[in-house]
Amino acid sequence: MATRDALTVEDVAGLLNVSRSGIYALIKNGEIGSYKVGRKIRFTEAHVRDYVTRSGREPRRQEAYGSVALDENKYFDLSTGRRGGEGFVICGQDLILDILSNFMRMHGVTALRAYIGSYDSLVSLYHDKVSVATAHLWDSSSDDYNVPHVRTLLPGIRCTIINVTYRTQGLYVAKGNPKNIQTWSDFARDDIRMINREKGAGSRVLLDENLKLLDLYGSQVAGYDEENQSHLAVASAVGRGEADIAVGTEKIARQVENIDFVPMKRERYDLVVKTERVDTPEIKTLFEILRSAKFQNEFKSIGGYDISDMGKIIHET
Length: 317
Prior knowledge:
alpha+beta; D-Maltodextrin-Binding Protein, domain 2; 22% strand; SinI_DNA-bd
C-alpha cells in the first residue's frame, strides 16, 4: 500500500475487503481512527495499519500482476442497492476476480467488485443486485460443487455455471502441526480451538457439511462462533497462535508465516450468471476474456490455481 494521508471511505473499504457501511460501523465503534475535512471522512495510512495490526486483517495488495494493477479496482457496496447504469457487478473474493474486473474495464465494460461470500453472492444474483456471482459450495449429498446450491438459492431461474479455477481446500495448522491435526473429526477434540469463516462462505459450508457427516454440531467445536471474513485473516490467526485450526485454500497458506497446510478437498470455483443474459455484450466479453491466452497467462506463474477448465460451461440449470 503506497503511503497516503487522505484515504476515502471507499479506499479503506477496498483495502479491508468490507463494505462502506462496515467502515462506518468501525468508526462508530472506535475501532479505526479517522479525521474530517469539512464533512468528509478521511483516513491516513497509519490509521489503517493500526487497525490491521490490532485486528489481524490484511489490506488489499496494490501491486501489479502482469499488466494489470489491482489498485484500479472499483468497489460496490451492496447495502446501497444497485440502480440502473451502475455498472457490471462481479461478486467474490479471489484475486482472479480482481484481475478479471480490470480486464473487463480494459474492454470497455464498467466492472465493479463486491467482496462477499458464495451464499450471499448467489442470493444477490437472485435479487438482481449483481451481474455475476461466484461460488465454491460443496454439497455432501451429491458430492458436487455449486449446482445443487444454485438450484436451491435461485429457484426457477435458469442459470449458466462457468468454471474459473480449481483450488485445494484444507486445514491451516501451526507450523510443524504440533497437535497432529489430520481429519475433520479433529475439530471436536478437547485440545483444539478453531477460528471460523462467516456464514455462507464456501470454506464454512465445507466444514459444516463434513461435521454433519460426522454427526457433529458446531456447538461441540471450540471457537466455532468466532468468525472472520477472509482466508488470510483466519490463517494469520492460526499463525499467531490465537487458534489451532481453520479452513481455507492452499494458495493463502503459502502467503502466511508459521502455518502448515493439510489438504482435504479439491474444490471447483465457478461463476454463475442468469442464462437469459448470456448473450449480452457484457457476458460475451467476460467469456472472451476468460478463454483468452492473455488472461490465463496471468495465473500460470501463481501457485494454487488449476485453470485447465477456465471459461468452460460446467452446467446449465
